[in-house]
Design brief:
single chain, 24% helix, 3-stranded antiparallel β-sheet, 153 residues, 7 strands
Length: 153
């Protein structure tokens, strides 16, 4: 079942957010189709985030992290299938399949580091806002003073 959200009321007072609608629709479609491996997104501070992904059974060399355009792509390649053939399982409940998990990241987000500990892959992100995008105060000049300044020049 596909759910469609009408974002028109939200976009009435917004200019230049056409891409946002597309990103939301794509992420909702992806979320419905993909649940492995589980992950958390944590806000550490105003501009610092962490993505934690449960990757039990994967070694560092089995994982690949790539940033392309505005996508963070995490891939896990399962263990060598030859080893799997030699093992006789009575019950196999631990998933060891390959995966690819994609995250849409906003502009000005930088990946600062990645580490793996106790089966959890942690990816640290930082939002670095350019100086031109930061809020700044505009001084208000009295109109009378402006006229006097122009006369003295």
């Amino acid at each position: 079942m596909t759910t469609h959200f009408d974002l028109t009321p939200l976009l009435r007072s917004a200019v230049g957010f056409d891409r946002m609608t597309e990103l939301l629709e794509n992420s909702l479609a992806r979320e419905n189709s993909q649940s492995y491996p589980p992950y958390n997104i944590i806000k550490l501070e105003d501009n610092e985030y962490r993505i934690s992904i449960a990757v039990a059974g994967f070694a560092e060399e089995d994982l690949e992290i790539t940033v392309q355009d505005n996508s963070l792509i995490v891939r896990g390649n399962s263990a060598d299938s030859n080893e799997e053939d030699e093992i006789e399982y009575l019950h196999k409940g631990i998933a060891s399949r390959s995966f690819e998990r994609r995250f849409q990241i906003a502009d000005y987000i930088k990946i600062t580091s990645a580490s793996i500990k106790n089966g959890m892959l942690s990816i640290e992100l930082y939002r670095e806002i350019p100086e031109r995008m930061k809020p700044r105060n505009i001084d208000i000049i009295n109109g009378d003073n402006l006229i006097e300044q122009k006369k003295t020049k």
